[in-house]
Amino acid sequence: SDVYKRQVLYIAGWIFNKQRLYRPAMLAVWLGISGNLAGFGLRWMETYQAGDGHVPLSNLYESLVFFALTIAILYAVIERKYDQRAIGAFAIPLAFIAMAYASLSPNISDRIQPLLPALKSNWLIAHVVTCFIGYAAFAIAFGLSVMYLIKKEPASPLLARLPERRIMDGLTHQMVMFGFLFLSVGIITGAVWANSAWGRYWGWDPKETWSLITWFVYATLLHVRFMRGWQGKRLALFSIVGFASVLFTYFGVNLLPGLHSYGAN
After folding, report:
1. What is the Cα–Cα distance from 12 to 18, expressed in whole angstroms?
2. Could you tell me the pLDDT band of residue 137, with boundaries at 50, 70 and 90?
3. C-beta separation of 151 from 165 below 8 A
4. For 54-79, how does the pLDDT look when each residue is reduced to its tens digit (9 = 90+)?
5. CA pair distance 9, 226, nearest whole angstrom
6. Cis before residue 106, ω within 30 degrees of 0?
7. Residue 58: how many CB atoms within 10 A of its CB?
8. How remote is the C-alpha of 187 from its chain's centroid?
9. pLDDT of 116
10. Cα dihedral 172/133/13/6 (nearest 10)
11. How far apart are the C-alpha atoms of 119 and 196, rounded to whole Å?
12. How far is CA 216 from the centre of its chain?
């Protein structure tokens, strides 16, 4: 798949220090984005043919594919703006893992299923899209944090090819701020959606609760950054903890009964 190819190209470009490998890697990213968007559109059309037209963001398979798409798009913007291609060796594998899990896990069905009555709302698009843009930003911040932690000073020849630590620190902070903004909007739109669907803004459903916990984790990270000047290793570790919270919000709570659980869908 395009996701697999671009992952290999970025990692090979970083390990072997071959700049010429990065160009086809970026081309593969854009091909993957195009293919993903085309598949998203075709799946949306198929929901209408099934008589239940809805945006394909309603089950675990669809959300994982969209998660991979948002990571790839956000990374492509970062690479174009900052020209730090080695980041792709750590960011793109996250999109690959999401796609691989969606495609290969026996517990995930890719079948198009009728939308539950409570989910038939325009708020679905606003809520899911904003949340996953936030998740994608946190995923890239996680990749940057791992890069920061493994790059020791003085660095080995392999690690010396990574961006400077100050660049990674600054980008991590920017990604966290960007993700925090979209997560906040996602929680707000989710509350409005919940009120229209179930007649209450907040019900302490497991996913609602963990979304709020994740919000507080990143709010604390930004607070200590602004008020106490945290940066470097402490910021990187905090970012990794935050992404662990994101993953539990996304996957862990599906093991618990709740209105927001994807279950095995």
Report:
1. 8
2. very high
3. yes
4. 888 888 889 999 999 999 999 989 88
5. 37
6. no
7. 22
8. 16
9. 74
10. 170
11. 10
12. 18
> Hunting for tokens 């993903």 — which residue is that?
36
Predicted TM-score of the model (pTM): 0.86
Does residue 242 contact residue 235 with C-beta atoms inside 8 Å?
no
| Length in residues, the chain | 265
Query: Which tokens go with 73?
Result: 């798009």
CA–centroid distance for 166 within its chain: 23
Residue 90 corresponds to which tokens in the numbers above?
A: 């750590």
The count of C-alpha atoms lying within 13 angstroms of the C-alpha of 161, restricted to the half-sphere facing its C-beta, is 18
